Amino acid sequence: MSDTTVREKVIAILAEQAMLEPSDVTMDSSPEDLGIDSLGLVESIFAIEEAFDISIPFNANEPDQSDFDISSVATIVAGIKTLIAEQADA
What we know:
Layout: H1 3-18, H2 38-52, H3 73-89
Domain Carrier: 1-84
Protein name: Phosphopantetheine-binding protein
InterPro entries: ACP-like_sf (IPR036736), PP-bd_ACP (IPR009081), Ppantetheine_attach_site (IPR006162)
């Protein structure tokens, strides 16, 4: 899967959750910047897991303790690419 495809899918999922147009989502945007609350973040994580057939190591109860960086769209995309690569190697 190309980097562009991963980025576009993630942006589409986050934009849908935030009720924004994908063009309004930048790689520097944080979930908070997009107006995504904790429940919306969990729903976004589930949607991303389903879209890419991966399991994201994210604890909704302790997001700061997670190994998965959700601080920006760019870090989410990078983490997903890593998980996809790890799954391909398994």
